[in-house]
Design brief:
single chain, alpha/beta, 7-stranded mixed β-sheet, 11 helices
């Protein structure tokens, strides 16, 4: 049975996203809150705990396809990753390989590693990266959805880029370091985190899509994310999913070319102008559909 209800992906919490992105009633949660699997570290610091440690994991179906799914809860510590949180993601990915799932869908919303559990969190994120690559090597595509208010930053930003495909909304954000981190380390002259328009121009879905860092951009709607995830999953049927040396070398070459071409740009709008995609000042005002059409037309004309 397929759910037809749609709503803002940005405003939904992790469990609402799970319920609306996947087939209605199909989600089976592993380690639900009743199991009371909580962080062993937060209590010692008198910090609040969550009985799912800020991440929901389990199996579901997506238009009938057998998938494994995880959704981070941005409302708990910004979706930050600790030892238990990371272990749940790793266990999910390993079980997906064991059960030969058709795909893994990760609904990421996170600021990165949980500072309360610094080393344990860092190790957990590195284990998630390895598990994602192992899952891909087993022939199972990993698809990431990014559209929550906390974005996808830090180590989990790297995890996202380890996946086969990333689908974002304009409201989603993706980067290694968050705006506040960059400002703290290098000063407001480097990056003014209070300039929200600049933040979204730099880390938002449209910029990531224009640069090829995400493979799909959709409206802020759970039904749109569902449709894009299903279509992307279908596209991997019969196609290789594992990361190859050739792909890594191509990615490195692309990054070198990006630095050479845009390294002196002071604002993403300068990059958009150099890409030749319409009027750069109009891009932030475009809805997802017209924006994708504009980019498609520019790529057809052969502009890099």
């Amino acid at each position: 049975m397929t759910s037809t209800r749609s709503s803002s992906y940005l405003e939904a919490n992790a469990r609402e996203r799970i319920a609306q992105v996947f087939d209605a009633g199909s989600f089976e949660e592993f380690l639900p809150p009743a199991k009371r699997i909580v962080s062993p570290h937060l209590g010692q610091l008198d910090a609040p705990v969550s009985f799912d440690d800020g991440v929901v994991v389990g199996r579901a179906s997506l238009n009938g396809a057998k998938v494994f799914a995880a959704a981070q809860e941005g409302g708990f510590m910004g979706g930050a990753v600790g030892e238990v949180h990371g272990a749940k993601l790793v266990g999910l990915l390993k079980r997906a390989v064991q059960e030969k799932a058709e795909g893994v869908i990760l609904l990421l919303e996170t600021g990165g590693v949980r500072l309360h559990e610094a080393n344990a969190g860092l190790i957990a994120v590195s284990e998630v990266m390895r598990a994602v690559l192992d899952t891909r090597a087993a022939g199972i595509p990993v698809i990431v959805l990014v559209g929550g208010s906390n974005g996808c930053f830090g180590g989990m930003g790297i995890v996202a880029r380890c996946a086969n495909a990333i689908i974002m909304s304009e409201e989603g954000r993706l980067a290694m370091s968050g705006p506040e981190v960059i400002e703290t380390a290098n000063g407001v002259e480097e990056f003014d985190s209070r300039d929200r328009a600049l933040v979204w121009r730099t880390t938002g879905g449209k910029h990531r899509y224009l640069l090829g860092d995400c493979q799909g951009i959709v409206a802020d709607d759970t039904a749109a994310f569902r449709a894009a995830a299903s279509q992307t999953l279908q596209g991997f049927k019969g196609n290789p999913t594992a990361l190859t040396l050739q792909a890594l070398e191509a990615e490195q070459a692309m990054l070198e070319q990006r630095i050479a071409r845009f390294g002196d740009a002071g604002d993403p709008q300068e990059i958009w102008e150099r890409l030749g995609v319409g009027n750069a000042k109009d891009i932030p005002m475009l809805e997802a559909g017209p924006f994708v059409d504009l980019v498609a037309s520019h790529r057809v004309k052969g502009t890099p």
